[in-house]
Amino acid sequence: MLQNIKAVIFDVDGTLLDSNGVWQEIDEEFMEERDLDLTEDFQKEIDGMSFHQVAEYCHDTFNFEETPEELMDIWHDMARNEYTYNVKAKPGAKDFADFLKKNNIKMAIASSNSHELIDPGLKNNELYHHMDLFYTASNIGEAKDNPKIYQNIAKELGVEPEECLVFDDIIPVINAVNDAGMRSCVVLDQRSVDIYGKEALIECADYHINDFREIEYAGNNN
Predict the structure, then answer these.
(1) How many separate domains does the chain show?
(2) Minimal CA–CA distance to 138: which of 155, 166, 116?
(3) Shortest CA distance to 123 belongs to which of 134, 159, 59, 26?
(4) C-alpha dist (Å) from residue 41 to 54, 84, 114
(5) Measured between alpha carbons, how far is 148 from 154 in angstroms, rounded to an integer?
(6) Which residue has the higher pLDDT, 138 or 200?
(7) Of 47 and 125, which is predicted with more confidence?
(8) Which of 55, 76, 138, 156 is 20–30 Å from 46 (CA)?
(9) pLDDT tens digit sequence for 155-196
(10) Does this model's pTM top 0.70?
(11) Which domain holds residue 107?
(12) Domain for residue 155, yes or no?
């Protein structure tokens, strides 16, 4: 998996951090307060969107009285404590990041979430300072399922697309990674398995893992 790889790009929620359960609870609570159902179609529709795009989508689709910015503030308030204190890294993530750092393999984040949430989550799990570059909702400005995002990340890291390996947990992003000419590894997070199905996730990517303990590299004895 790591042969000829010079850079690794990580999604955060459901990939580096085991945080999708937080968002499931927030989505359910938020929609229930407004007498709306959280459907599978809704989950698929927002996958890959930036945080602001999700807010705009919800505002326009459900005619919420709050502005997209106010919706984001509500969601941030609901999630902040969880990311700061409770969200844990996927098993093996820290050891894998340590290995990449030791071997001078560059690392980047590509997340549709915001710095306000992922930064404390990564710091609490000793992953933040491993990263060389952050692409988040605040600076992507568009859906994450665009191959240009990954090509731009490779350019900023000073590597070729074919020298990059990307970890994500949703099919639209994995398809974009493949179109960008990069190698892809899907993380079989339970939320994504429930939405897309395990076989569909496995088929879309070059590799698949349940967590980072399954990756074979020097020093990994799991």
Answers:
(1) 1
(2) 116
(3) 134
(4) 14, 30, 23
(5) 10
(6) 200
(7) 125
(8) 156
(9) 999 999 999 999 999 999 999 999 999 999 999 999 899 989
(10) yes
(11) 1-216
(12) yes
